[in-house]
Amino acid sequence: MPSLRNMFEQVSDLIGAVKVLQGAGVLDLRKPKKTVELAKLGEQIGPIASVVEKYALECPNQLAIVDEAGPLTYAEFDARANAIANQLHADGLGKGDIVGIIARDHRGLLTLIAATGRAGVRLAMMNTGFGKPQFNEVAAREGLKAVFYDEEFSGLVEDFPAEKRYLTWVDTAAPAGVRVVEDLATHGNTSVPPRPEEFAGFVILTSGTTGLPKGARRSKISPFAGALVLDRIPLPQRKAAVIVSPIFHSTGWALWGILTALGNTAVLMRRFNPEKTLAAIADNKAEVLVAVPTMLYRILALGDDVIKSYDTSSLKTVVVAGSALPPALCERWQDTFGDTLYNLYGSTEVAVVSVATPQDLRQSPGTIGKAPVSSYLRLYDDNDKRITATNTPGRLFVRNGAPFEGYTDGRTKQVIDGHMSSGDMAFVDDNGLWHIAGRDDDMIVSGGENLYPQEVENLLAAHDGVADVAVIGVDDEEFGKRLRAFIVPAEGEEAPTEDGIKAHVKANLARYKVPRDVIFVDSLPRNPTGKLVRRELPTGPLS
User: Fold this and answer.
1) Is residue 209 predicted with pLDDT exceeding 80?
2) 21-32, pLDDT tens digit by residue?
3) Pick from 155, 270, 449, 456: most CB atoms within 10 A?
4) Among residues 372, 368, 383, which one has the least CA distance to residue 431?
């Protein structure tokens, strides 16, 4: 039985979330009948499919999607989703079945997200950075009955029979026996398919930066989910939003879903290009940009002349998530584009944890801000004892209204007093702003000192001669562990040297935080969400 305190808290959270959703325009309590009907429909076919149907009726000519193939209205999007859902049923797929998709950001991916909800089929969104062994292992683990894919991923899905493959994007020509989603969507049966008993849910994979990505299962979308974002991030209604963060992952998926719930137009591109992103903002008068931090670096690297050649004055909200946001990047972005930056911190497992507003980032660049409505943060030490002091790092645990239901392999995250492990180390400062110190498994002990590589990364990221940086711990015979820095030199700047990098760290941090090794590389291994794939960095002895 939940305690009286917990029950009071849950009611308070619900009231707070409803106020946020009403204020943002997601809920209209002046029309209770329609609100209840939409909620019931969402329980059957999912939130995305239900709001697409809503806007297809209310504003059929409003643009839902703009991609490389052109614009799609909500009415067209709705009809396409019905056609694909009916095709899934015709192919014998339904309740209890799981299909996978490996696709970049375009209408085919979004159509399938809505269509699987309407067909009562669960959708597993696969990582576009997969190699064939990874893809096959995850496909087998998730029990995929069919796979949807862009042509560029043909080599990954060739072990599936042709009749269980569907092409979501064609660059050249479809192979014999493989159906094309575009053809099915434009020529199929667009009548409303039979309603499933309940929403089948979906599977979003974790980033997999240290091993094979795990599947995070969600069969219900909490009413708190949208409020976790909208409580601290202002999003418009019926405007345009450029989304360059991959939608197969949790950040892109969540922001697209909330933006769609507000009737916005999603402007997509299959591959990120910094200048084309500026052009998309200008051409569509977009008020929102959803990205990952490395994309902001690449936009800023275009230089002032290129940036100023595009009219981005419409841009009001830039949401970043997916990887650490270095303090220097916060300042450079807001100095160039104004106070538009929102740093969303969360994960596939614990959903949205906290959000830093532009004002928070001016006050303390790099902060993850404060918790939104219904999100509660706690710190624990290695003995599971709670830490309440400020400026004291601990393991970050989170409780909110939108946790996942466990991994698809049966495992889950550690939970203490209803709070789930985030996997990160964090601390809260004297102003109540939260900060990430690094992954809880990234901390190393070198010569008896506890080190968090992220602190050194943040310092080096601000160096004029550094375009990208990663710092990791490697084995050391004398000290147990030592720091190793990988540096991507910045173009157009004086090339940094090993001695110069070490001197810079020594001048700004404690002597024991100076990397023993400094390696210059052309690029760093990052996944599509911008996270560093640490397992691909060399940790052995240097030749």
Assistant:
1) no
2) 888 888 888 888
3) 456
4) 368
